[in-house]
Amino acid sequence: MRIFTPTEVAREAGNKYVGVLVAAKFARFVNEFPKDRSYEREKKLTTMSLEELANGELSYKITRRRRPQA
Fold first, then answer.
1. Domain boundaries in the chain?
2. CB–CB of 44/26 below 8 Å?
3. What share of the chain is helix, strand, coil (3-state, %, to 5)?
4. Per-residue buried b or exposed e for 1-39, using 16+ beta carbons within 10 Å of the residue's own CB
5. How far is it, in rounded angstroms, from Cα 69 to Cα 21?
6. Global confidence as pTM
7. DSSP string over 14-37
8. Alpha-carbon gap, residue 23 to 26, rounded angstroms
9. How many angstroms separate the CA atoms of 41 and 29, rounded?
10. Per-residue pLDDT tens for 18-53?
11. Which is more confident, 41 or 13?
12. Fewer CB within 10 Å: C terminus or N terminus of the chain?
């Protein structure tokens, strides 16, 4: 298992907290795909998504949270 430092994640995301949130959201997104039973994953989804984020292969867009209209 590869260990990601906060500076590695922050380099691509601009902030280590945003980087972890983006990687976790991407891992949940990938987990929703239909599973191929004949293929065994060699890495966990969170490790795979952190690798893609650290390598600059993952693009994302931050949107502002909408407040409910009163």
1. 6-54
2. no
3. 50, 0, 50
4. eeebeeebbbebbeebeebbebbeebbeeeeeeeeeeee
5. 26
6. 0.72
7. SSHHHHHHHHHHHHHHHHTSPP-T
8. 5
9. 16
10. 888 888 998 888 888 776 655 556 788 888 888 888
11. 13
12. C
Hey, what amino acid is at 60?
Answer: Y
The answer to whether residues 10 and 19 touch, using CB atoms and an 8 Å cutoff, is yes
Task: Read off the DSSP letter of residue 38.
Answer: T
**Helix H or strand E segment including 48:** helix 45-54
Asked whether the beta carbons of 20 and 64 are under 8 A apart, the reply is no
Work out the number of other CB atoms within 10 angstroms of the CB of residue 59.
Answer: 9
